[in-house]
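User: Batch of two.

Assistant: Item 1 of 2:
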Amino acid sequence: MESSASSENKFKQPLVGKYLRQEILPTAFCPGCGCGTVLNCFTRAIEELGLSPEKMVFVTGIGCSSWIPSPYFKSDTLHTTHGRPLAFATGVKIMRPDLHVIVIAGDGDVAGIGGNHLIHAARRNIGISVFMVNNWTYGMTGGQVSPTTPFGVPTTTTPYRNVEHPLPAAELVAAAGANYVSRWTTYHVFPLVKAMKEALRVKGFSFVEIISQCPVSYGKLVKMRKGSDFLKQYREQSVNVNKAADMSDEELEEKIVVGKLQEKNREEFVSVLRRINERFQNERSG
């Protein structure tokens, strides 16, 4: 049996002391949950970029993945109402454009209840980095159907099966005008870290959709109770975006398209807004 001393030492790593709060580790995530992988990957990404905790502000809502930024990271965090992290993040970015404003939240928060905020934040190209942890369900509240739940899957609110087709969140964000969009799964940890770094470097709206396992609420409904079962599924069902371009809709049924969906250099919203404000202030003072 592992002693309490060795268990404590296990978490005394440079990344913990620099970016994560020692006193709340290990995490509160369910066994097999993908949120721990996302937390790990994101911490590696900001460490490799050399970002300072004082220069980051996290914004999140309600749900399992909202525990990733709050309370683990040693940065300022706004833990907001359900579906509203992007609205709050917009306000932060407008007032403090010098900061990295980062939203880490679930599919219910970002694409469901907050879907309209997502569309218009991408359309405006606001300089926010969004990492949407998509576990295909409302996991914290018991496994209800979400906008990303796959077609035909039973949930607690669709016990006979889901008859809605899932929302292609990443494709929607790309169509709305975001400067950077990609999708990966918790199986693709190294590409995911790279995508996170790319998203954090972008000036403008960046969005990374992360397909993540929920062995408890979602897993019990589809008879997959181990995190490793989901990782195997992600490995077998994932198709790179370049290959997917030559595949039909029928061939892509039940596939997960991964990779970089969009990267461009449209001017960021807050920089335009500030330039206009400064010009009119100068005209009035002159």
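Item 2 of 2:
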Amino acid sequence: MVVGVIVAGCGLVLVMGGGTADPTGPHVADSAAAGSAAVADGRGAPPTPEVERATRPGEPQEILIPRLDLRAPFVAVEAEGEVLPPPSDPATVGWWAGGVSPGASRGAAVVAGHTVQGGGGVFDDLHELQGDDEVVVRIDGRDLQYRVASLTTYSKDELAANAADLFDQRGPSRLVLVTCRDWDGDAFRSNEVVIAVPAG
């Protein structure tokens, strides 16, 4: 099973291949934002349908990050044929609906948000987060409390080398927030990845 990410413009999409009905797996469609696509491959395996049903609480509705004064709705991002597009609205966050939900007993709940050169992207200020900052996800009528455990800027090659661990669907329960960074005038060259773990 191959799990990876493709960063298209200023958004992120998750790509899976092998072990699915379509052995080629989903691929990415370029976003409307400027930038080139970068592929990061890993080896994390998704949950089986039985595990997914047992661990998925529901669909998240809203994310709140007090330090950034951020409050934004979720959009479930699903594969369309072989394509898993990022959110079209830069003011929303995209939750990978093919993976686990926030609050699942295991696995990385992947949340992608846009950074927009000049402002207007939901995750423009993601790099300002610090360790132990609060992240709240509203789901099933309750608030899930997370704390920031790490914030790392990865080059495309570094993201490829770490994708299996970052997006593993069978590892410890966590929230993975991803956006683009390092605009060079033509494209975003890096990715900001925030890992948040359940508080308490």
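Confidence is low (pLDDT under 50) at residues 1-47, 50-54.
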